[in-house]
Every structure is written in structure tokens, then in C-alpha cells.
Amino acid sequence: MSKTVKSEGKDASEQSYSELHRPSSEFESRSDYLDHELQIMKPKIWGLNLPGRDFRFEWEDLVPAIAGTIGITVMYSAVMAAWAAGLTEKWDHVNLGAEFAISVVRVEMLIPALLFCVISSGFINPRANLAGNHGPMIPLIGAIALAGAHPLALAILLGIFGLLLSYFKGGSKLVNLTSSGVAGGLLVFLGFMGSKSQIGSLFTWADSLQAKHALDYSLSYVAFFILLVNVVVYSVLAKFEKRWLAIPLCSITAIIIAFGLGAGLDLQFVTAPGIPNLNPVYWWGSTEEGWQLGLPNMQHFIASLPFAILAVAMWSPDFLGHRIFQELNYPKGTEKVLMDVDDTMTTCSVRQMVGTALGGGNITSSWGTYMIPAAIAKRPIPGGAILLGLLCIIVAVAGYPMDVTVWRPVMSIALLVGVFLPLLEAGLQMVKDTASSQSAGICIFAAFVSNPVLAWALTMLLDNNGLIGDKERPKTLSFADRVVIPGLAFSICLAAMLAVGMIKGIPALL
């Protein structure tokens, strides 16, 4: 326990963070010190927060910063590869290749990192989580392109809808109306499906090495040993409560094993140091350069509309999962440093429009590969956000580190131990009784039948009306909380999915 010291004439509620701060040597353990730091922080919302006065940098901040850098490089690369393939197929005059995709990833990692990691979440509003990537939308990008959507039109619509939802506090309202059972089921499903996908991708990569490099022998076993050793490493870290080290340590382990078993020949350094073209006119002002699409017209906005609605509708469950990680790992009395859902929506909305206007193509959401490791490491948002922004800029300029982060062993292991396994664990922790297990089970079942967003909306509606889960819960809710808001959420999600063809067996209505 810490030695309690008060400034003369003031109680703790009146003292500033700098007055309440105590050196780590006064605490029995590092964990106690980190808990105390979270409890004494009083960040300014949309004001100036300064290191030393309002927060501190700790070496634990490096963990979410490194994890977030690996995760976002992987995600951005996947997004731009999907856009390039889809738009090249859709438009006859468009030919977007790997060099284009890397250039746009670099655009996304430079200016937005400075504005929305370092400045916004670091200094201006430390309760707004960083604006990262909307992972669940990546599989849809091909369909978005083929539907005739325009990346800039999609970004403008998504930003406008997000700002409206944030202004009316809709995001936090939906989070508060989601019970622990529904939230737990959602996290379990996302964790399980994500883990399954990354394990499958790792084995597919290992299987492909023989033909890809004309080898006389198979390297299929490489994936097995990478996973086996990292299961042990992750288990040891969990036992000693050091899971926040999982992404860097397990990624390094994966590299060592891959090289040791002969798979290192697949890692190639092709991204030379440099800075991409940061002039928006290059990207959007001509059909001869950049995206080769020109500026969007009304037809592009119409084609982008249902996808923008769907993306914003998917924000609430995404944000919910990240805030839950803080609540599960932070001690009591840390409400002032918990991620604010509505402020995060504001940041994501503005970042979406600004980043894409500069030439980017990301579809943004709350930054999970940063928040989840940060919550596990018991660190607030600002210190790691600043370090993450700086790391993104360094990686984007250096070039070659991008090749390492998108190499399959690093990519899959980082996502497994940094995102999907923690999601699975958090979901299981939230299912604490029979009522919540029923809600969780039906949420998981509905997600398998349709998708996690529609499952969240449906089970929230059923749960809030006592049809599943806690039968006493509806008595504490108003009619709007039981019927109107959940009903609207379900209707909007269903309409958007029907419009873009996300319901199995039903063709797209638009």
C-alpha cells in the first residue's frame, strides 16, 4: 500500500494530479503504483493536458504503443489491399497495385497519427480513445468498391453520421443499455472467430511456403510450433500478470521460431525509406494520379450511404468492448480516466474525414490493438497515445519495419495475443450467472446465424424486455430504453444490412 500524504489544507478531491503523485518507491508493488496513478488522474476534456502536470510517461506505455503500431500497420495494409483490388475490378481505367497501397498506408500513418494520436488523444482529450481501424468492415471493402462507392464519399458520410450520434450521446446510451450478458456473448464470439481466422491464416501461410519458394520439403509444421511455443509464453505471462508484454514478446518469439525452422526466407524487405505524397490534389484532383477516381459525385454518395450507416451502427459494440477492458482491469475510483464513448466517436468522425481527404482510405473505429494492451497494462490513454503516434510516423518514414509488421507470423500472433485472446477472456469473465449466460449464449447463436452487429442489436432488444437474461432488468428501464432505442438500433442495422446484401440468401436491395 502507498504512504498517504496530503497537501496541507486540502483533501484528495481538491488536489491536482501533480500534487497527488507519489514515486513508485513508496508503493509495495508496481501494480499498486499503477493503480494509484489511474485513481489520481483528472484529465481535462477538450483542454490542454501536459506531461508531469496531468499525466506521466511510464515504460509500460511502450507496450500498447508497440502493439498498436503493429496492429494498425497490419490493418491499414489489409484495408488498402482490399480497396486496390475492388476498385481495379470495378473501374476500367483504374489500376491500383501494391506500391499504391503502401503509399496510402504511409499517408494514413503520418498526418492522422500526429493529429489524432499525439495532439488529440495525447494532449487535448485523454478520455477519447485513439481513432484506429474498423476491422469488421475489412471483409466488406471489396463489396463496397463493387457497389460503386467512392472512398472519399464514404468517409464524408461516415464522419457526418458519427458526429450526429456523438452529439446526441447515442453511443454512450447504447453502451449503457447493453447488459453484461449480451456484451460478454459479443466479446466471446468476436474473440473466438478472430482467433480461428488467425490460426487458419498462419497454417495457410506455412502450407504455401514449399510451392512459393520451390522447396523440396514442406514447412507446414512451422505454424504449429509457432503457436505451441506462444501458447506457453502467453500462459506464463498470464500466470505472472504480465500479459501486457504479450504482443512484443510473442511477436519476437514467432520471428525467432520462423527463422529457426527455415521460414525466414519468406521475409523480404521491399519498402524503402521515404515520405508519400501528402498533397490531397495528387490523390483526389485528377483521374490520372492517386486513386484515379477523381472527386465523388452524387451517385457515389448514394452508393456509399448504406455502408456508412452500417459502419457507424457497428461502432457502439466495438467501443463497448474496448471500454469493458478498462473496467475489468482498472481499480475502483478510476471513472475519470475511462474511455468516453461519445468523445471517441467525435474523434473517429473527424479523423475519418480528415484522413481520407488527405488521400487515405481507412475506415476508422476505436483503436482496439492499442486500448486492449493499454487496459491490461493498467495505463491511461495519453502517454501511450503520444508514443504510438511517434512510432507510427517513424515506421511510415523508415519503410522497412512495415515489412516486418505485415509478415504473416508477426501479424497473426500479434492479433491473436493482443486482441482476440483477450477479447475471449474478457467475454468469459462477464458471464457470471445463469441469466447472463443465457443472454450470452443467444447472442453467440445469433451472431453465427447472421453477424455480430445484428446479434448485438437483437439480443439487446430481447434482453431489455426480459425475454432473455435477467427478468428483473426491464423494471429498471424506461419504455424508451426497453423498446424505442433498442428497436431503432435493430431496425437500422437490419435495413443497412439488407441494403448492402449482408443477410445470407437475400440479394442486396441497393
From TrEMBL:
Family matches, as InterPro entries: DUF3360
A Pfam entry, by short name: DUF3360
Residues that span the membrane, as ranges: 62-88, 100-124, 144-167, 174-194, 214-237, 244-265, 298-316, 381-400, 406-428, 440-462, 482-503
Keywords: Membrane, Transmembrane, Transmembrane helix
Domain of life, source organism: Bacteria
Region (Disordered) location: 1-24
Name under which the protein is recorded: Membrane protein
Organism (species): Shewanella gelidii
